[in-house]
């Protein structure tokens, strides 16, 4: 299983900072991704995934007045196994609070944003995939544009959510867009596994990038890790560096 977190001491060549194909990805605008007036549903495997993967796009769509619905599949409480500092009980309360602050920092319309919390168990989503598909489908409508983690992202929970979202979208005749998250931190040698022909680039201005970075820093639990038991920050230095890029990538 590939991991988004990388050691702080060395940053090996990764897809996001080494693939020549990144420079040749066609640019797409929001109106091509989401028809005017369409509702947007963003599905996050864990709290924070929506900010890290498409925090810039969320800002653009909110600014255009698209109705937004966010579905958080888990509460992220298993991110620090064995930690006394960040116990599962503490995280089950703390991580949703971090998400509220992060979404506020993005400037999303909190009064109208519909936010569904699934309460599924971390690191066990593959075993719950059928229930997960049914759960997601319950909150989708025909014509929705659904943004979910890529079903081949390389993280067991991400992949399960991606597969479930794809099936749920098919069931209700919604439009699926997939977003790579952990895949950008694969070793460079695995870049051939990425479907570059489906990739599109969403340009972000400096203000949008800055707000996205500011929102990401609301996730204190993911910035800290727990050095006492060898848990590195999930939002490691390479991840934070990538978030400053002036674009996001989506698979269409």
TrEMBL record:
It holds the Pfam family PIG-L. Coiled coil: none annotated. GO terms for molecular function: hydrolase activity, acting on carbon-nitrogen (but not peptide) bonds, in linear amides. It comes from the Bacteria. This is PIG-L family deacetylase. It comes from Pseudomonas fluorescens. The lineage of its organism: Bacteria, Pseudomonadati, Pseudomonadota, Gammaproteobacteria, Pseudomonadales.
């Amino acid at each position: 299983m590939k991991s988004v977190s990388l050691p702080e001491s060395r940053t090996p060549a990764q897809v996001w900072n080494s693939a020549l194909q990144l420079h040749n990805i066609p640019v797409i605008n929001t109106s091509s991704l989401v028809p005017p007036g369409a509702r947007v549903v963003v599905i996050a495997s864990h709290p924070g995934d929506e900010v890290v993967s498409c925090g810039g796009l969320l800002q653009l769509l909110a600014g255009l007045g698209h109705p937004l619905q966010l579905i958080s599949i888990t509460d992220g409480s298993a991110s620090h196994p064995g930690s006394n500092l960040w116990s599962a009980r503490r995280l089950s309360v703390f991580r949703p609070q971090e998400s509220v602050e992060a979404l506020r920092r993005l400037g999303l319309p909190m009064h109208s944003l519909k936010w569904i919390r699934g309460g599924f168990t971390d690191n066990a989503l593959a075993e719950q995939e059928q229930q997960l598909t049914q759960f997601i489908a319950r909150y989708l409508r025909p014509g929705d544009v659904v943004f979910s983690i890529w079903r081949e992202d390389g993280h067991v929970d991400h992949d399960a959510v991606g597969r479930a979202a794809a099936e749920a979208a098919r069931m209700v005749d919604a439009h699926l867009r997939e977003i790579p998250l952990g895949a950008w931190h694969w070793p460079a040698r695995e870049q051939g596994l990425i479907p570059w022909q489906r990739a599109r680039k969403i340009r972000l201005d400096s203000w949008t990038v800055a707000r996205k970075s500011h929102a990401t820093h609301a996730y204190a639990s993911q910035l800290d890790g727990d050095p006492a038991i060898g848990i590195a920050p999930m939002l490691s230095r390479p991840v934070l560096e990538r978030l400053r890029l002036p674009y996001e990538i989506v698979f269409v």
